Amino acid sequence: MKFKCKKVLFLSLLTFLLFTSSTVSVFAQTNNDIFTISGIDIDKTDENASNAKEKAIEEGQYIAFEKLVERLAPSFDISDIQYDKNFVSSMIKSFEIDSEELSDTRYIASLTFYFAPNEAIDYIEKITHTKLVQNTPTPVLILPIIRFNDIERGQELWAKDNVWYGAWKTYNLKRSFVPIKLPNADSIDAQLAPNSMVIKYDPASISKLMQRYQTSSSIIAILEMEDSDFKHILLHIYSYNNNYREHIKTIDISSSGKSDNILKKAVNKTIDLLNSDWKNKQKTMSITNNIITDTVKSNLVSNVIFSNMGEWIKIQKALKDNFAIKNTKIISLNAKNAKLRLEYIGNLEQLRLALQDSGLELTIPLSNNYNVANINNTYEIQLKN
Q1: Are strands 217-225 and 140-148 parallel, antiparallel or unpaired?
Q2: Tens digits of residue pLDDT in 3-33
């Protein structure tokens, strides 16, 4: 059976009437967008490849939606969910085929789905009646160290033949909800954190790498190989945060098969652990600045500052797509700024963080308490520099 492989990108052109102006925009998402669900792997067989593809995409959107529910409502048991499958497609703004293989009767693909924030939030609130996660995880720096049973070779990070680093380099990191940063493994990295210091978990060296890649935490993933044929492999995962190293888990990756498949399996195990750890933390959190703890709506008046019509359009779209914003009304509008009344959920600090994730900066008056939304005070919103 012969397969043809290709990569296709579907982006919907979104025509929307926003506030008092209308425009056409191409929808785009960042990799760490909470409403982007990647890594949906589907394998379907039917009378022909066209039918198989249609069924695969349909099934994929349901799987993606359930993953989104798990992400936004981690305390909710997904097995208890009852939802309208016909409504799911209306919440999807676009989807991407990351890879696909097809024959006469079979279709295999990896898909990414982009959900409309406001529609998804409203519907998930309705069916779960639970607190929704508002934030996205912070980036994590991965340090893939390979440890050999051969004493002479020892442990390596920056070595050119570090196949463990190579597995991360070729992996589609967009599949992880927790944003992952992989070091360049260049001369600067080697100078900031020499191999001999990293394998000793030297705090100063690891901190320098974290500063370079702008992360507040890192994961040291040590792949221990007892033989060269990849039959006996242990994966040791450590977290490093605030100069403190903690062993998270050791996983037996031992298997017979191709080395590439085993290394990919080890990458997947690490990513699954990161995402699961983030989800579990959300479950145990009663309240933080990044969690919407209720759906009570508040109002504030804000001056929106922009230098041209292009910036105004970007701000409008960001506000429209932000799930914390439930309604927006224009009070006044001129060439350089607009005065808006915003209706939002959560408190002001949660709103600030939500807007920050959308590329907007909310300036809160120093005289105002973050926990009080006084519509007599005027705030400022503008694009982040």
Answers
A1: parallel
A2: 444 444 443 333 232 333 332 222 233 334 7
**What pLDDT, in 10s, does the model give residues 253-309?**
876 556 667 888 899 899 989 988 887 777 655 334 444 545 668 888 899 999 999
CATH of domain 291-383: 3.30.70
The listed CATH number (3.30.450, 1.10.10, 3.40.50, 1.10.1740) that belongs to domain 140-284:
3.40.50
Kindly state the tokens that stand for 218: 């890192």
In percent, the amount of the chain with pLDDT more than 70 equals 77
DSSP calls for 309-360: HHHHHHHHHHHHH-TTEEEEEEEEE-SSEEEEEEEEES-HHHHHHHHHHTTE
Give 288's contacts (C-beta < 8 A, 6+ positions apart).
Answer: none
88 C-beta neighbours (distance < 10 Å), count: 20
Counting Cβ atoms within 10 Å, is residue 85 exposed (0-12), middle (13-18) or buried (19+)? exposed
- Is the predicted pLDDT of residue 203 greater than 70, yes or no? yes
Using the CB atoms, write b or e for 346-362: b if 16+ within 10 Å: bbbebbbbbbebbebeb
CA dihedral sign, ordered 283, 287, 292, 293: positive
